[in-house]
Amino acid sequence: MKQIQSTDSGYWLLTQGSALHLVNGKLPFGTAERFAIAGAKGMVIGEWEGVPLWLVAEQQDEREYFSLRDQLSLPEEQFHLLSRGVEMNHFLKTHHFCGKCGHKTEQTQEEFAVQCTHCGYRTYPVICPSIIVAVRRGKAILLANHKRHYQPNGGGIYTTLAGFVEVGETFEQTVQREVFEETGIRIKNIRYFGSQPWAFPNSQMVGFLADYESGEISLQETEIHDAQWFSCDNPLPELPPTGTIARKLIHATLALCQAENQ
């Protein structure tokens, strides 16, 4: 990043964690002087509506910030660009010091990384791979109400199963393990569906479809409040927001369920 000049202009991405500053629901646009950004550190990370998009180094201020999740309705390319900025700032603020010798780091010029000023050890942005999977049994889809979505008065989001990849695992092994750990279900016919950057704070969601093989639902109660098979012929519970890979997986699975009727 470099020092932002008062005449620098474009759209401005200011973040605090996985939240971003918006003005009337949009990214601020204009000169750095107009938004009191001159003197801060920043860099151009792409284009937004044909003009430069500046990422500003994270700072504590009194601006109003909104969750990145609120932007899921944006075109996918724009949402991914916002995710990129959020993850870049997360990386920079968590890597001020070298993980090898403890001395200060500085950002490299030729690529996006930080390098130790003492031992030269170079670190790149940390991306945590996670799987997310929709499981189908005939005309039904397996959906879970996670603890974080539980509402005491009933309702709450029901979604697909997900989890982080562990060291030495393939994605397919993670899919099998997570489904079995969380629900006691064994699955087969695992196939890749798609992926989504998920800057909360630095995940990469890798999506899969799978079919039921055997077992009865047995909940991992530390994480899952409820899990059920939902028929595509009946009303569904509250689902994750449009724009999430979870919602796309659910729609793809429901289409397969509907095909069972034909």
Descriptive report:
There is one protein chain. The protein folds into three domains: 2-95, Nucleoside Triphosphate Pyrophosphohydrolase; 97-126, no CATH class; 128-260, Nucleoside Triphosphate Pyrophosphohydrolase (Alpha-Beta Complex), CATH 3.90.79. Strand 2 and strand 3 (19-21) form a beta hairpin. The strands form three sheets. Strands 1, 2, 3, 4, 5, 6 and 7 form a seven-stranded mixed sheet that branches. The chain is 18% helix and 36% strand. The protein has three helices and 16 strands. The chain starts with a strand and ends with a helix. It is an alpha+beta fold and 262 residues long.
Secondary-structure map:
Elements: E1 2-3, E2 9-16, E3 19-21, E4 29-31, E5 41-48, E6 51-56, E7 65-67, H1 76-93, E8 105-107, E9 114-116, E10 122-123, E11 128-137, E12 140-146, E13 161-164, H2 171-183, E14 186-198, E15 203-214, E16 224-231, H3 245-260
Parallel strand pairs: 2-6, 11-15
Antiparallel strand pairs: 1-5, 2-3, 2-4, 3-7, 5-6, 8-9, 9-10, 11-12, 11-13, 12-16, 14-15
Discrete helix count: 3
- Biggest sheet descriptor: 7 strands, mixed
Q: Report low-confidence residues grouped into runs of 5 or more.
A: none
In percent, how much strand structure appears in the residues? 35-45%
Judging from the principal axes of the Cα atoms, what is the shape? globular
Instruction: Please report the distance between the alpha carbons of the first and last residues.
Output: 57 Å
Q: CATH homologous superfamily of the largest domain?
A: Nucleoside Triphosphate Pyrophosphohydrolase
Instruction: Give the % helix.
Output: 10-25%
H-E order: EEEEEEEHEEEEEEHEEEH
How many individual domains? 3
Per DSSP E runs of 2 or more residues, the count of β-strands stands at: 16
What does the radius of gyration come to? 22 Å
Q: How would you classify the helix and strand content by structural class?
A: alpha+beta
Average pLDDT, all residues: 95
CATH topology of the largest domain: Nucleoside Triphosphate Pyrophosphohydrolase
| Quaternary organisation of the protein chains | single chain
User: What top-tier CATH class of the largest domain fits best?
Assistant: Alpha Beta
- In the CATH classification, which architecture of the largest domain applies? Alpha-Beta Complex
InterPro entries: NAD-cap_RNA_hydrolase_NudC (IPR050241), NudC-like_C (IPR049734), NUDIX_hydrolase-like_dom_sf (IPR015797), NUDIX_hydrolase_CS (IPR020084), NUDIX_hydrolase_dom (IPR000086), RNA_Hydrolase_NudC (IPR022925), Znr_NADH_PPase (IPR015376)
Subunit structure: Homodimer.
Enzyme class: hydrolase
Keywords: Hydrolase, Magnesium, Manganese, Metal-binding, NAD, Zinc
